[in-house]
Design a protein that fits this description.
six-stranded mixed beta sheet, five-stranded antiparallel beta sheet, 8 helices, elongated
Length: 352
């Protein structure tokens, strides 16, 4: 089921929680609303679900305008952040709840519940109560309850936020697997950038109620369009730079950051003062000296197993550098002098 939002706004008193947001979500897409707390992502999800009427704009499911359609008639399934399971009902009874409300026959109900229990891998737990389940098992019950009614659209509001880090990784893979097997349009809310990149076909980054950027995880990560998108989607080194010259035929750009000249493979930005965004893993430590090589001092070195994250004093500020698959003998200590260069082909120039 395709979902189309046209100019959606939602106001609470003086707060404009959602401000003129337009989106097209394709049939079968795993679409994520990503942003920090207070950016409007949950409010927008609740407008789609029908819990909040929009104060402006239109919501379409396919070609059907659903602004005035109540939540229980929108053919959506909802998974809440706290799962909202009935504590006095067993796993099977929780999953069956939506079918009972819809007065589905006993034979069909048993078949659909059985299929769903197998799909989310809850076999043997049917008679347990929510209080007897782990967080991951409760999350799967909530997912099964939302899916068993065969919704055309699945809505998920921070469904993994109450789980520990290791279980979150396992469950996001499980959700992605189930979603792709069923081919159901899914709209997913999270503030976790890694989670969004891992599960999504496309991502909408929201900031202060407005759409900041829309694209695939790769498009947003490698080509952010604003400082906010660059910093929020994975973290980035941001430098204010001044353009010195540009050869559009190559293309090649000469610029300076706090007086340090650099050569970049990029086209001239709209103005001579812009921001350079460089991901920490795009910075290369080197033993060489010469053009485009920057010198700095290690202020901290954080060993994270698969990588070492350095905070280096350089370029009139600080630069974060990540070295992946490090060797123990190569790890630089605090106070060490280092040289590094930016990969001229892996960077983003931002106009704001």
């Amino acid at each position: 089921m395709q979902v189309v939002l046209k100019g959606i706004s939602k106001v609470f008193g003086k707060l404009r929680a959602v401000d003129d947001v337009s989106l097209e979500i394709g049939d079968g897409d795993f679409f994520t609303l990503l942003g920090p707390s207070g950016c409007g992502k949950t409010t927008l999800l609740r407008v789609i679900a029908g819990f909040y009427p929009p104060d402006g704009g239109e919501v379409y499911f396919g070609e059907r305008l659903v602004n005035d359609v109540p939540p229980h008639r929108r053919e959506t399934g909802m998974v809440f952040q706290n799962y909202a399971l009935f504590p006095h009902l067993t796993v099977r009874e929780n999953i069956a709840y939506g079918l009972r409300v819809r007065k589905v026959g006993r034979a069909e109900m048993d078949a659909r519940i059985g299929e769903m229990i197998r799909g989310v891998r809850l076999e043997g737990l049917e008679k347990r109560f929510p209080g007897q389940l782990s967080g991951g098992q409760q999350q799967r019950v909530a997912l099964a309850r939302a899916l068993v009614i065969s919704p055309q659209i699945l809505l998920m509001d921070e469904p993994l936020s109450n789980l520990d880090a290791k279980l979150r990784v396992a469950m996001r893979e499980e959700i992605r697997r189930i979603q792709k097997e069923l081919g159901i349009t899914t709209i997913y809310v999270t503030h976790d950038q890694e989670e969004a990149m891992a599960v999504s076909d496309r991502i909408a980054i929201l900031n202060l109620g407005r759409l900041e950027q829309l694209g695939t995880p790769g498009e947003i990560y490698f080509h952010p369009r604003s400082r906010f998108a660059a910093e929020f989607m994975g973290g980035s080194n941001l430098f204010e730079m001044r353009v010195l010259s540009c050869d559009e035929a190559v293309p090649r750009l000469r610029a300076e950051i706090n007086g340090f000249p650099l050569t970049l493979k990029a086209r001239r930005p709209a103005c001579d003062r812009a921001y350079l965004s460089v991901r920490p893993e795009w910075v290369r430590l080197t033993e060489d000296a010469g053009e485009d090589v920057v010198e700095g001092t290690v202020e901290s070195a954080t060993f994270l197993g698969a990588l070492v994250r350095y905070r280096v004093k350089a370029l009139g500020g600080h630069v974060t550098i990540e070295v992946h698959t490090p060797r123990s003998e190569d790890i630089r200590l605090e106070g060490a002098s280092v040289r590094f260069r930016f990969d001229p082909e892996r960077l983003a120039i931002l106009g704001d």
